[in-house]
Write a structure and sequence with these properties.
By secondary structure, the chain is of the alpha+beta class. The protein is built from 4 helices and 7 strands; from the N terminus they run αββββαββααβ. It has a single domain, classed as Roll (Pnp Oxidase, Chain A), CATH 2.30.110. It catalyses: oxidized coenzyme F420-(gamma-L-Glu)(n) + a quinol + H(+) = reduced coenzyme F420-(gamma-L-Glu)(n) + a quinone.
Length: about 140
């Protein structure tokens, strides 16, 4: 894990789900997955939108032309745990199942991220034609 990600994780946990670095605020969640190849546990701080059906996660990889490693982890092992900022100002956990959205449903979800931050539109441009996947995390 990168030092940057570890710092984000540490701040998330120390500040009850709030991350001041880069202005993230309470917009991140910690995704606990299993490595697709290694089988090792992984934790990734990721942008997330919570709604009535669970959470949305974009596999933007900062605009890389390749999907992030965690994308493959969720495809191989979709039953995961999520740490998220709760409505009481703390952190809660949920057991969820990840599935990749497609078509118009994916496009609508992706538009929600672009509406939240112009950075996502920049990632889309930088991704060199890669359609950035979006996952729906549904409570189990």
């Amino acid at each position: 894990m990168s030092d940057f990600n570890q710092g984000i994780i540490d701040e998330f946990r120390a500040n009850n789900g709030t991350v001041t670095a880069m202005g993230f605020g309470r917009s991140l969640a910690l995704v606990h997955s299993v490595g697709a190849k290694s089988g090792e546990p992984r934790v990734n701080p990721l942008a997330a939108i919570r709604d009535d059906e669970g959470w949305l996660l974009p596999a933007s990889a900062g605009g890389s032309p390749k999907n992030p490693a965690w994308y493959h982890n969720l495809k191989a092992h979709p039953d995961i745990e999520l740490e998220y900022p709760d409505e009481q100002g703390g952190i809660s956990t949920a057991l969820v199942t990840a599935h990749e959205l497609t078509g118009a449903v994916r496009d609508e979800a992706w538009d929600r991220f672009k509406a939240r931050s112009s950075g996502f539109a920049e990632y889309e441009k930088a991704a060199q034609g890669r359609v950035i996947p979006v996952f729906r995390l549904s409570p189990r």
